[in-house]
Automatic annotation (TrEMBL):
Sample GO molecular function, one term: odorant binding
Record localization: Secreted
Signal sequence residues: 1-18
Name the record gives this protein: Lipocalin/cytosolic fatty-acid binding domain-containing protein
Lineage summary: Eukaryota, Fungi, Dikarya, Ascomycota, Pezizomycotina
Similarity field: Belongs to the calycin superfamily. Lipocalin family.
Main location: secreted
Keyword terms, alphabetized: Secreted, Signal
Domain of life: Eukaryota
Length: 165
């Protein structure tokens, strides 16, 4: 039985690894504190690539953020914790995990605790560069509700992404 469970875990990690690795762009973003994701703020991240390392014990994110209209490329590494969530330092302490994965669409839940202790619940939606379908938007709304994020705080940011590809 233990061998079966280990095999199932290994298969699951390999599947997640294969589905997450690669080129992605931020399609939408949402937060319970919408000021944290406004244009020009560091948490409004324009993703370019996700890479699982060490059997997905580390997750590398390559993204841009804009400040004063200038795009700044950043690489962040999240380390998987015992609960399966990743933790990384960027504009505070971030705990994040993929909560929904398809080959063309990923939703990450993130909790950011900034230097003042303010907690912000967020959702990042990554895709392959296509606008959201109505079904995908419904899925985002479901996860936003779980994170106590008002529907009106969901922002489609694909059109504002003018950083290098």
């Amino acid at each position: 039985m233990v061998k079966f469970l280990l095999l199932a875990l290994a298969f699951g990690l390999a599947r997640v690894h294969a589905e997450i690795d690669g080129k992605w762009v931020t399609v939408a973003i949402a937060a319970d504190n919408v000021k944290k994701i406004e244009e020009g703020r560091p948490l409004r991240a324009y993703l370019r690539e996700l890479n699982c390392k060490e059997s997905c014990d580390r997750l590398e994110l390559t993204f841009y953020f804009k400040e004063n209209g200038q795009c700044t490329k950043t690489k962040l590494t999240g380390n998987r914790q015992e609960d399966g969530k990743y933790n990384a330092q960027y504009d505070g302490d971030n705990t994040f995990e993929p909560v929904y994965i398809t080959p063309e669409f990923i939703i990450f839940a993130n909790q950011n605790v900034d230097r003042t202790g303010l907690t912000t619940n967020m959702i990042y939606v990554f895709g392959k560069g296509q606008p959201l379908t109505p079904e995908q938007y419904e899925k985002i709304e479901e996860f936003a509700k779980v994170q106590n994020i008002p529907r009106e705080n969901i922002q489609d940011i694909l059109a504002t992404d003018n950083c290098p590809k």
